[in-house]
Amino acid sequence: MKYPKWIFVNSGASSPSFNMALDEALLIWHSEGLIPPVIRFYSWEPAALSIGYFQKVEKEIDMDAVNRLGLGFVRRPTGGRGVLHEHELTYSIIVSEDYPDMPETVTEAYRVLSEGLLEGFKNLGLDAYFSVPDTDAKRADLKKPKSAVCFDAPSWYEMVVEGKKVAGSAQTRQKGVILQHGAILIDLDAEKLLSVFKFPSEEAKERMRIKIPEKAVSINSIRKEPATVEECIHAFKAGFEQALSIELEPYTLSEQQFADVKALEEKKYANADWNFRV
């Protein structure tokens, strides 16, 4: 059987603003028919905190701690909560809403696209499965989360291993195109994660300190042999190909495309008007 060809962008480590600009640029190019659907893997240099489109910096983020730790900072075009991007592999998927057999609803499309993550974790020897909030209380938490921290609870169809969240993702739809991206935890520094968020009291922060290890887990905390970034790239690339029945072809940006991404970065994602908007 001949599988549809998507492009594979393995862009390595980039600044937070460039990473978000490239995801948006890929969405734009796909919407214009210039490129096929995309699977992209990347990392962050420097390590960075990204926040969701709707989050309030002044209310939720300790920018003094972000700066003191030398972290980058960027607002994502997607929703969701704050993510510390450090010991992880980040992925993005760019595909048209009208792609064959793509569900119309956000939740079901999320499930279909996240099948690649599921297979990737299995390729690493982990018994991963989809989270499905099974009580009214858990479903209510998704609509009104109790904290600004992404990894304190799994959402619909996010990846869970041993009952704990191991990947966090978010999605947006623009120009008829789905952009889904997320963080696959290779390791987790819970103390650093906590330090960049504001809490109403020390007691609330302590409750979250206790809660994080109960709710989130990294690949290397449960795997006998530590996983490298390259091993994860191989496992999840194969996972997406298998789950989505596609063939991934390596893709390198042209000089013009790179310049376009840099222009979008400067205009938007490196701009305080975007990152600190109220």
From TrEMBL:
It catalyses: octanoyl-[ACP] + L-lysyl-[protein] = N(6)-octanoyl-L-lysyl-[protein] + holo-[ACP] + H(+). Keywords: Acyltransferase, Ligase, Transferase. The keyword Oxidoreductase does not apply. The keyword Transferase applies. Transmembrane segments: none annotated. The record marks 165 as: Lowers pKa of active site Cys. Monomer. Belongs to the octanoyltransferase LipM family. This is Octanoyltransferase LipM. Pathway: Protein modification; protein lipoylation via endogenous pathway; protein N(6)-(lipoyl)lysine from octanoyl-[acyl-carrier-protein]. InterPro entries: aa-tRNA-synth_II/BPL/LPL, BPL_LPL_catalytic, LipM, Octanoyltrans_LipM/LipL. Its EC number is 2.3.1.181. Catalyzes the transfer of endogenously produced octanoic acid from octanoyl-acyl-carrier-protein onto the lipoyl domain of GcvH, an intermediate carrier during protein lipoylation. In the reaction, the free carboxyl group of octanoic acid is attached via an amide linkage to the epsilon-amino group of a specific lysine residue of lipoyl domains of lipoate-dependent enzymes. The reaction proceeds via an octanoyl-thioester enzyme intermediate. PROSITE patterns: BPL_LPL_CATALYTIC. GO terms for molecular function: lipoate-protein ligase activity. Residues 33-248 form the BPL/LPL catalytic domain. The active site is at residue 150. It is an enzyme of class 2 (transferase). It comes from the Bacteria.
